[in-house]
């Protein structure tokens, strides 16, 4: 980037891994300011920090809407989010203003698929309950019917949204990890059938079929107006009573009141959630009172290396946008 006259102001909404910071520090003509905290930037500080910025590097917890864009003003050329999900960005407004958007697909796929499978196993084999019983003295002896769960062997797994995380390039990230457990059928639903699904004998089925025939349902679609509230009372009522529900996409795909009812009434066996609405989920939330609901604090991509690569990619996207050149991962608006 060329020197002083073209000084580009960048605002970063959080403390991010050093891999990304180093890239920005080495970029000439870039004046970086940052909300230097592990906690989210307060809205008032975001509105202040973004003023006059040419580039904004944000996270999924920052709602980037008309108010933020107005506060930034006409300089803003690029928004780079350190996430693959972009439901926190009001794209219609961003597009209207000709602002480019970078995001971080692919680099977190493996980590997220791994966590999703871990959550599925923890939920179906009741690991948190077991750990709690050991700690609280509830473990009195080996008992034939105590803490039994559901195994994957011979089961039918249904994946809603066979995208990057549903698959992983031409390996199927979640599917590939589940098949060695002896899964018998793999169903998936979404907007379109995928040619790559043939590699794991994946069957493209209507959502209703997936819902009623699966023993395990994994939600890995993006959050859109069509998927918001997709998993509701009607959805849960079609599931088998022995089925397990896993969500690692976005909390808003699920109607949590309906999920609570389904879990507490025995309509479904258990649920594992890496994502909720809101985040964090209040500690007095009804879902947290249920033994058959495992809730994680949105840690799908949380490995040190993945977060480092995500921050580097977010920084490179930002610089590409500032320089008016290619961005390694630009979202098509
Ligand atoms: P992709 O864009 O590759 O996949 C999204 C999938 O959603 C596509 O297969 C798409 O299907 C499907 N989809 C879109 N609309 C619908 C619909 N109406 N009904 C059913 N399926 C639909 O994204 P990724 O796989 O990379 O990521 C998916 C999501 O996972 C992200 O958007 C993010 O929200 C979440 N995520 C969560 C993480 C965590 O930490 N828990 C980490 C990373 C991502 P089709 O191709 O047929 O349109
Ligand atoms: C994303 O990137 O969208 C995840 O939710 C967090 O990594």
TrEMBL record:
This is Glyoxylate reductase/hydroxypyruvate reductase. Keywords: Oxidoreductase. It comes from the Eukaryota. One of its GO terms (molecular function) is glyoxylate reductase (NADPH) activity. Residues 117-300 form the D-isomer specific 2-hydroxyacid dehydrogenase NAD-binding domain. It comes from Oryzias sinensis. CDD domains: GDH (cd05301). InterPro entries: D-isomer_2-hydroxyacid_DH (IPR050223), D-isomer_2_OHA_DH_cat_dom (IPR006139), D-isomer_DH_CS (IPR029753), D-isomer_DH_NAD-bd (IPR006140), NAD(P)-bd_dom_sf (IPR036291). Belongs to the D-isomer specific 2-hydroxyacid dehydrogenase family. Residues 10-330 form the D-isomer specific 2-hydroxyacid dehydrogenase catalytic domain. One of its GO terms (cellular component) is cytosol.
């Amino acid at each position: 980037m060329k020197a002083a006259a073209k000084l580009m102001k960048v605002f970063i909404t959080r403390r991010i891994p050093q891999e990304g910071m180093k890239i920005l520090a080495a970029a000439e003509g870039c004046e970086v300011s940052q909300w230097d905290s592990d906690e989210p930037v307060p809205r008032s500080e975001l509105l202040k920090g973004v003023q006059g910025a040419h580039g904004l590097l944000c996270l999924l917890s920052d709602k980037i809407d008309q108010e933020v864009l107005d506060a930034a003003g006409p300089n803003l050329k690029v928004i780079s989010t350190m996430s693959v999900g972009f439901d926190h960005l009001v794209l219609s407004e961003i597009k209207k203003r000709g602002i480019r958007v970078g995001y971080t697909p692919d680099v977190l796929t493996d980590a997220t698929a791994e966590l999703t499978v871990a959550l599925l196993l923890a939920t179906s084999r009741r690991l948190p309950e077991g750990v709690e019983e050991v700690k609280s003295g509830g473990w009195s002896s080996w008992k034939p019917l105590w803490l039994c769960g559901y195994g994957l062997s011979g089961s039918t797994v249904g994946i809603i949204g066979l995208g990057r995380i549903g698959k992983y390039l031409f390996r199927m990230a979640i599917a590939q990890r589940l098949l060695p457990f002896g899964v018998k059928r793999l169903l998936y639903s979404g907007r379109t059938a995928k040619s790559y699904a043939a590699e794991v004998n994946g069957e493209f089925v209507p959502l209703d079929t997936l819902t009623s025939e699966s023993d395990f349902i994994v939600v890995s679609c993006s959050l859109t107006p069509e998927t918001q509230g997709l998993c509701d009372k009607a959805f849960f009522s079609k599931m088998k009573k022995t089925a397990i529900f896993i969500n690692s996409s976005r909390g808003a795909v699920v109607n949590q009141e309906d999920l609570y009812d389904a879990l507490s009434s025995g309509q479904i066996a258990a649920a594992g959630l890496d994502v909720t609405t809101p985040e964090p989920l209040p500690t007095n939330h009804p879902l947290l009172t249920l033994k058959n609901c495992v809730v994680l604090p949105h840690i799908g991509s949380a490995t040190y290396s993945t977060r480092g690569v995500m921050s580097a990619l977010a920084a490179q996207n930002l610089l590409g946008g500032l320089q008016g050149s290619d961005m390694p991962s630009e979202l098509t608006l």
